[in-house]
Amino acid sequence: AALTGRKITKVASGHNHTIAVDDQGKFHTWGFGGYGRLGHKVQKDEWTPKMVEIQGGDRNLCPPDCVVSAGQTTSWVTAVQGQMYCFGRLKTTGDNTMYPVPFMDLQGWRLRSVACGATTYAACGEDQTITWGQGAGCGELGYGPKGSKSSANPKLVESLGGKHVIQVACGVGHTLF
User: Fold this and answer.
1) β-pairing verdict for 111-116 and 97-102
2) Whole-prediction pTM
3) 101: helix, coil or strand?
4) Would you put residue 39 in left (φ > 0), alpha (ψ -120 to 50) or beta?
5) Which of 12, 28, 58, 153 lies 20 to 30 A from 52 at CA?
6) How much of the chain is in helix, strand and coil states, percent to nearest 5?
């Protein structure tokens, strides 16, 4: 099997797929390959773990403090130098990303946690927490009762300003900070 003899250091499970990071800094995905959420450049289901490659050299390594998250249709992982990569279906409309691509909106953030919900996302780092996504009719973005129900770009959750959020988690219709 693909992970035999390897120590798994991180795991994230999404709606129909799983990501595992091994002690060599490589990450592997398996499950339902729809929308490109496995990052293997094709929409093909994988019944056993398969290594995902990030284009270009040492960026293929996930540091020991890497952040991984799997959502309904997407996957997220940080590689060396903290660059966040995403793949899968990032919006309810539009193209799918079939392989890991840099998510530039989070460049420069020292992330502690990233979470994927059904159509929303949350991240925390330093003393700021941000959320973004579409169709957040239950307040899962944390913008308050009169706040926006969607945000195409990461936006600061002002009510958490200055708070030291350690971890975020998203589900269908809710977010935990």
Assistant:
1) unpaired
2) 0.90
3) strand
4) left
5) 153
6) 10, 40, 50
Classify burial at 28, counting beta carbons within 10 Å of its beta carbon; exposed 0-12, middle 13-18, buried 19 or more.
buried
Residue 113 corresponds to which amino acid?
A: S
CB atoms within 10 A of CB 130: 23
What secondary structure does DSSP assign to 15-67, as a single string?
SSEEEEEETTS-EEEEE--GGGTT-SSS---EEEEEE---SSGGGGPPPTT--
How sure is the predictor about 175, in pLDDT bands with cuts at 50, 70 and 90?
very high
Start-to-end C-alpha separation, the chain? 37
Q: Which amino acid is at 3?
A: L
CA 172/CA 174 separation, integer angstroms: 6
Q: What is the DSSP letter of 143?
A: S
Q: What whole-number distance in Å separates Cα of residue 61 and Cα of residue 25?
A: 5
> Mean of the per-residue pLDDT values for the chain?
89
Ordered by start, the domain boundaries in the chain are 1-108, 118-177
